[in-house]
Amino acid sequence: QITLKESGPTLVKPTQSLTLTCTFSGSSLNASGVGVGWIRQPPGKALEWLALIYWDDEKRHSPSLKSRLTISKDTSKNQVVLTMTNMDPVDTATYYCARSFFLAGTGTGSTYYFDYWGQGTLVTVSS
Amino acid sequence: DIQLTQSPSFLSASVGDRVTITCRASQGISSYLAWYQQKPGKAPKLLIYAASTLQSGVPSRFSGSGSGTEFTLTISSLQPEDFATYSCQHLHSYPYSFGQGTKLEIK
Asked: Which of A46, A106, A110 sits opposite B98 (nearest CB)?
């Protein structure tokens, strides 16, 4: 059974950095074709894709947040870590990690989709 | 960056109704589109990928169609457990983005 679980602080102060850990089980971060992404959702708002790291250490970041984001993985612990610097109250959101896995469609559109998600962790930015 | 616009943002329907939600992309994304269902306080659940392929375990009353810039999610006969928020996501090119969501409520 594949599970992901986010962990980290629930409250951070403005200007501080946030470090979140996604612990992944039932699948290996070393396995070809596996990636883990981070997505957030401010209260009552839409989902926002943040970053993604693949088994081969390829990394992708949202351009609007790229200067503030760092994503890395520790394959020995099967964990992915997201760091976001200079936190602001507008960064208050539920942060999710999700497995990115290659899924073949019946026609075109075969690519890496987020098929398993963690439960999410609410991070509040406030002084 | 590719923008996704869903319509409607809110939808009121009854059990047994057939409903359709539309997702429009600001540029062509082939069939690199996913649909998610999200219930309050829960993580999104992948329903459909590659625009029209049903994820394993998802009831067959859900279906997706479209390619290029216009996509639809259809629920053929609403069940009580289907009342939730539905979001589309493109995976054509980075940055991947989501639609703003469609909240499906009980009439």
From this structure: A46
